[in-house]
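From the methods appendix. Each design record in this collection lists the discretized structure first, followed by the designed amino acid sequence. Records were kept in a plain field format so they could be parsed without special tools. The example shown here is representative of the layout used throughout.

RECORD:
C-ALPHA CELLS (531 positions):
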C-alpha cells in the first residue's frame, strides 16, 4: 500500500486551492476518533473533505457519496468532544488561505471566524499526515496557542513535541541531516533517496529508481501531473506505474484508492468476525447433537424394558415373589434369559416397574428426537449462512449477513438489497447471495408462475426464473437455471449434483421460520453434471 506523501499532498492542494480559498465550512462531523468530514461550499458547489488519521491509511480528499459508503461511515449518536470544539469555532467560518509548509505533510487551512462576542478571530486547522503521528490540530493563528487536538500528545509520548490545549503549536523538528534535492547537483544513491533528501517518501523512492536527477526534480516541482492507480500503488505520474489506470484528478485518485483500501480492510475484519461467531455457534450445536445422539442410543433400552415387563407377567405363576432374578424363555430367540428384579417387590410390581421405565424412556426419547430435529434444522440454517459468508464478494453483502445473525433491535432494518440478476435469451434470472436476498426473492420479487431452483440437500443460493405472461421457458432455459443453482452452492465442485425446481406458487414459508427457509411440493429434480 502507498502512503500519502508530500508530493501528492502538494498536487492535491494545487488542484483544489481555487475551491478552498473563500469556501465556507458549513458542517463538521467526526464518525470516529480517527476520521472527519468537513462540508465546504464555494463557487455554487458543495464538497465533503474526508480526513482520516489512521496510521495504516492516513489520507485526505474530497470524497464522493459512493466512496463514503465504501468506507462504511456511520455517525455516532453523541459527537466526540473535539468535534464539538471544531463546531464551536469553525462552523460557518470562511477559508482565507491554505498552505503546506515546505517538505512537511501538513495541510494548514486558515479560517476567519468570530467568537461569542462577535469579534473576528483567525484560526488554523492543521491536518498532519505523518503516519502514527497523524493528527488534526486547531490553533489560534495570531497567538499560535492550541485550542484542541484530535489526539493529545503529552511528555510521556514525545519529549520533542507536546500537543494539547493551551500549549503553543510548533512544527515537527526539522530533519537537518537531509538535503534539499532541488538544490542538489551531485551523485545520488537510489537506495537511500528517502534517507538523504527532504520530501521523498519510501514509496516514491521505489518508483523513481534509475530516473535521472533532473527528472526527479521535475517530479518534486509537480510538473505534468497525470494521476493513475495500478493494483496496490498510485502516483500523480502515470509513467512511473506498470499498467496504470488513469484517474480524472489527483483527488479522484486519492478517493478511489483509499476507499478501496478501507473497504478491503473493513471487509476482512467483518468477514473474520462473522466467521468466528458462526464457527462458535456451529461448534456448540454440533457438540449438542453428539450428546443427544449418545442419549438416544442409551434410551434404546426402552423396548427391552417393555419386553421384560411382558415376560414377567407371562411367568407370574412360574416364578417367586421377592427374589432378585427370574429365569424365563425369550420369545424371540427361544433361549433362557435372566431378568433382574427388585427383591422387595412382587413379580407383578416388578413388571409394573419395567413398564414405567419403558414409558419414561419413550417420553424422553421423543423429547430428544424433537430437540434433535430442531437443532438439525438450525445447523442447516447456519451452514447456509456459512456458505453465503464464504462466497460474499462485497461489504454490503456481509453487512446484510451481519444484520441477520447479530440482533440489533434499535438499528434500522436493511432494506432494498441489490439482488444480482442476469438475462438468458430474454428471461430474467435472480440469484440470492445471502439469506436476506433469498427471502426477498421468494417474498417480494417472485410471482406464482415463476420458477424456483435450489441444489438438493446442500447450502446454496435461491435461483428465480421470472416467467413473463404466456412465455413458458423451454428445457434449455430450465437446465441453465439448474446449472446456476449448482454453481452458486457448496456442490459447485462436485462432479454431479441434484437440483430441484418448482413453481413459486408451490413454495411456502412456515410461520416463524428463519430467513430464506421454505418448504415446497410438486418439485422435479435434474442431475447437473460437471460437463
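DESIGN:
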Amino acid at each position: 500500500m502507498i502512503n500519502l506523501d508530500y508530493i501528492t499532498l502538494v498536487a492535491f492542494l494545487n488542484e483544489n486551492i481555487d475551491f478552498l480559498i473563500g469556501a465556507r465550512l458549513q458542517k463538521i462531523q467526526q464518525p470516529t476518533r480517527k476520521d472527519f468530514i468537513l462540508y465546504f461550499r464555494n463557487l455554487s458547489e458543495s464538497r465533503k473533505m474526508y480526513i482520516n488519521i489512521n496510521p495504516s491509511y492516513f489520507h485526505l480528499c474530497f470524497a464522493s457519496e459512493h466512496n463514503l459508503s465504501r468506507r462504511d461511515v456511520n455517525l455516532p449518536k453523541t459527537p466526540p468532544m473535539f468535534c464539538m470544539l471544531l463546531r464551536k469555532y469553525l462552523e460557518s467560518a470562511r477559508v482565507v488561505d491554505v498552505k503546506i509548509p515546505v517538505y512537511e505533510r501538513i495541510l494548514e487551512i486558515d479560517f476567519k471566524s468570530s467568537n461569542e462576542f462577535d469579534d473576528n478571530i483567525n484560526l488554523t486547522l492543521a491536518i498532519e499526515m505523518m503516519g502514527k503521528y497523524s493528527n488534526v490540530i486547531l490553533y489560534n493563528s495570531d497567538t499560535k496557542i492550541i485550542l484542541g487536538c484530535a489526539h493529545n500528545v503529552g511528555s510521556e509520548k514525545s519529549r520533542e513535541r507536546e500537543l494539547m490545549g493551551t500549549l503553543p503549536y510548533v512544527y515537527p523538528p526539522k530533519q537537518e541531516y537531509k538535503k534539499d534535492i532541488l538544490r542538489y547537483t551531485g551523485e545520488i544513491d537510489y537506495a537511500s533517496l528517502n534517507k538523504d533528501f527532504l520530501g521523498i517518501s519510501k514509496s516514491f523512492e521505489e518508483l523513481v529508481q534509475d530516473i535521472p536527477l533532473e527528472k526527479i526534480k521535475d517530479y518534486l516541482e509537480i510538473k505534468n501531473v497525470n494521476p493513475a492507480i495500478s493494483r496496490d500503488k498510485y502516483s500523480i505520474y502515470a509513467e512511473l506505474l506498470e499498467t496504470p489506470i488513469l484517474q480524472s484528478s489527483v483527488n479522484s485518485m486519492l478517493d478511489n484508492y483509499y476507499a478501496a483500501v478501507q473497504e478491503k480492510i473493513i471487509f476482512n475484519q467483518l468477514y473474520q468476525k462473522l466467521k468466528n461467531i458462526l464457527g462458535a455457534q456451529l461448534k456448540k450445536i454440533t457438540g449438542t447433537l453428539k450428546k443427544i445422539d449418545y442419549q438416544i442410543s442409551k434410551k434404546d433400552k426402552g423396548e427391552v424394558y417393555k419386553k421384560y415387563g411382558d415376560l414377567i407377567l407371562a411367568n407370574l405363576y412360574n416364578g417367586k415373589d421377592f427374589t432378585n432374578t427370574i429365569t424365563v424363555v425369550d420369545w424371540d430367540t427361544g433361549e433362557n434369559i435372566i431378568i433382574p428384579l427388585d427383591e422387595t417387590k412382587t413379580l407383578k410390581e416388578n413388571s409394573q416397574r419395567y413398564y414405567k421405565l419403558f414409558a419414561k424412556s419413550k417420553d424422553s426419547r421423543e423429547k430428544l428426537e424433537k430437540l434433535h430435529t430442531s437443532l438439525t434444522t438450525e445447523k442447516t440454517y447456519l451452514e447456509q449462512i456459512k456458505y453465503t459468508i464464504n462466497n460474499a464478494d462485497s461489504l454490503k453483502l456481509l453487512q446484510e449477513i451481519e444484520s441477520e445473525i447479530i440482533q440489533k433491535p434499535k438499528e434500522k432494518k436493511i432494506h432494498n438489497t441489490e439482488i444480482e440478476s442476469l438475462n438468458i435469451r430474454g428471461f430474467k434470472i435472480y440469484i440470492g447471495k445471502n439469506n436476506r436476498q433469498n427471502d426477498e426473492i421468494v417474498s417480494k420479487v417472485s410471482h406464482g408462475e415463476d420458477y424456483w431452483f435450489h441444489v438438493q440437500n446442500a447450502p446454496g443460493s435461491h435461483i428465480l426464473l421470472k416467467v413473463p405472461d404466456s412465455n413458458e421457458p423451454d428445457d434449455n432455459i430450465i437446465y441453465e437455471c439448474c446449472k446456476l443453482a449448482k454453481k452458486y452452492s457448496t456442490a459447485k465442485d462436485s462432479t454431479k449434483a441434484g437440483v430441484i425446481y418448482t413453481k413459486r406458487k408451490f413454495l411456502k414459508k412456515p410461520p416463524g421460520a428463519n430467513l430464506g427457509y421454505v418448504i415446497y411440493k410438486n418439485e422435479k429434480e435434474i442431475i447437473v453434471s460437471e460437463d
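APPENDIX NOTE: Residues 6-174 form a domain with the ibrinogen binding protein from staphylococcus aureus fold fold (CATH 2.30.310.10).
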